Each structure stands twice: as C-alpha cells, then as structure tokens.
TrEMBL record:
The keyword Transmembrane helix applies. It comes from Vescimonas fastidiosa. InterPro entries: Bact_transf (IPR003362). Keywords: Membrane, Plasmid, Transmembrane, Transmembrane helix. This is Bacterial sugar transferase domain-containing protein. GO terms for molecular function: phosphotransferase activity, for other substituted phosphate groups. Residues 238-278 are annotated as: Disordered. Belongs to the bacterial sugar transferase family. Coiled coil: none annotated. Residues 238-253 have a biased composition (Basic and acidic residues). Residues 49-220 form the Bacterial sugar transferase domain. The chain crosses the membrane at residues 52-76.
Length: 278
C-alpha cells in the first residue's frame, strides 16, 4: 500500500484520491484494507495444503484432463482452454483457466450468437459435472486461487460491491466455497455474498474439508446447476445499497457531501469541478 500525503491511497485494483476512483470504490477499498485477522490455519497451513492437494489432483486426474481436452478439441475446436480475467485477493485481477464449453457460432452478420445458443449438450455436461473447471487447479498451484473460498467473479463487479460484500476480497478466491455448497447457482447474489462473508470471517481446517466433501457430493448429484435455458448465472447488477444509489434522484451540486461526490455531481450538471475543502 502506498500513501501520498493524506489524499491518495492505492493498492492493486483500487486507487482513491483526487486522481483516483471516487465515492463508492473508495468505500469498498477501505473495507478491503481493514485488518483481517488470520488464524493459525489460514496463516500457515491453508496455502501449502491447497498447493499439495492441487498438485496431487492434477497428477491423479491427468488422464481425465487429457480426455476432456481431446473431446473439447474435437467438438468445439481450438482453443481448448478458456481464459478470463477475474478479481482475486484485494481486487487484483488474474487469469482464470477453464475448458471451453461454448462454440463460436455466429449469425449471418458475423455477430456471436447469444450464450444460450452457443452452449449445447456437451458444454452443459462439462459444466454440470464441473469437468470444465479442472484446469483451474493450476490457479491453485500458482497461488492465485485457493481450493475453498469465495468464487472468483468478474472484475467489473468489484465497484458494485457494498463495503460488507467487499470483504470477500480479503482472501484468495476459491474453486468452491460455502455459497456453492449452500445452493450453488440456485440462490441469489445477496445470499451468495452473505455466505462468502461468513466464510471469510471464520476460516477453519474442518470448515474447508466439510466444503470439499459437500462439493463432491453436489457435483455427483448435479445439484444447484444453472437453470435450463440459461447458459450462465444471472448477471450481478449491484447490491441493494448500490441499486439505491443509482435509482436516487439527480444530485444537487450545492448539497453538502464529500468532495468526491460533489465533483461528480458538478460534472453531471455541467459545472466546472472545484475541490472545496469538506
């Protein structure tokens, strides 16, 4: 973390101050940077344990990885792997690896078809059995992910978190988590984030192993998968606090508020931005 006087703070994805990101993101930054007290297990055991387990899983499942890679190559073509930037610990982005599950089918104008039309039975099978996520074990080995933790979500969601929801960024994201074994995609965003924060605030050895065993059971029974007709989970539009902020009436630049919000309001009303000491 770097400081420039008392006006600018930056770390990873976040940057607050006169030249940084104002308002909502600064609140989230403050929540993320709060001291997270780690227990003995989280501090000394979790990372090496996850690394060893991921390496063992990659070795044991290497034949499965090879077969799935071959099936994807024959059915969907190249590339075999799907790469996407996700938000990790402290909001820093990293590249998440998965097997491809959707084709590149396009319409007559060359535009990609909707996800639902590009996801066929083969892709749905990979997703429902979580076989598409086997390459993510490499993210665990590299240290960008944990086996258990809040799921890594899109970077674009970070500014939409409430300060409490942003606590999920205190730890490395996981391949599975408390939210996944408590409903997977069958529960809404607010409930998922509630489970994520509950996990982050109490990380234990036995808690992680319970999550791993429950994950295996849910995958075998294909519980909580994406609803029929939907290729992906519903997009996150922001928590209740964020939605209320966007739905409020146009702001009054004369109203007393923080200098960041005041500047944003003046810009919205076509007025020059003058920083006034608050």
């Amino acid at each position: 973390m770097e400081r420039a006087g008392d006006e600018s703070v930056s770390s990873g994805f976040f940057s607050c101050g006169p030249t940084g990101m104002p308002g909502k993101i600064c609140q989230i930054f403050e929540a993320v940077m709060n001291t997270h007290r780690r227990g003995f297990y989280e501090k000394y055991i979790k990372l090496p344990q996850d690394t060893v387990l991921a390496l063992v899983a990659l070795a044991v499942l290497s034949p499965v990885l090879g077969l799935v890679a071959l099936a994807v190559r024959l059915h969907l073509g190249a590339p075999v792997l799907f790469r996407q930037e996700r938000a990790g610990k402290d909001g820093r982005s990293f590249t998440l690896y998965k097997f491809r599950t959707m084709s590149d089918r396009r319409d007559a104008a060359g535009v990609l078809l909707p996800d639902e039309q590009r996801l066929d039975g083969f892709g749905r099978f990979l997703r429902s059995t979580s076989l598409d996520e086997l390459p993510s074990l490499w993210n665990v080995v590299s240290g960008s992910c944990a086996l258990c933790g809040p799921r890594p979500l899109y970077v674009k969601y970070v500014p939409l978190y409430s300060p409490r929801q942003a606590r999920r960024l205190w730890v490395r994201p996981g391949l599975t988590g408390l939210a996944q074994v408590s409903g997977r995609n069958a529960i809404g965003w607010e409930e998922k984030f509630s489970y994520d924060v509950r996990y982050v605030e109490r990380i234990t050895f036995w808690g992680d192993w319970r999550i791993l065993f429950k994950t295996v059971r849910m995958v075998l029974h294909r519980e909580g998968i994406t609803a029929p007709g939907c290729a992906t989970a519903e997009e996150f539009k922001g928590g209740k606090e964020a939605r209320a902020e966007h739905e409020q009436a146009p702001c009054d630049p004369r109203r007393r508020r923080s200098w960041q919000s005041r500047g944003r309001c003046r810009a919205e009303n076509g007025l020059p931005h003058h920083r006034v000491p608050g």
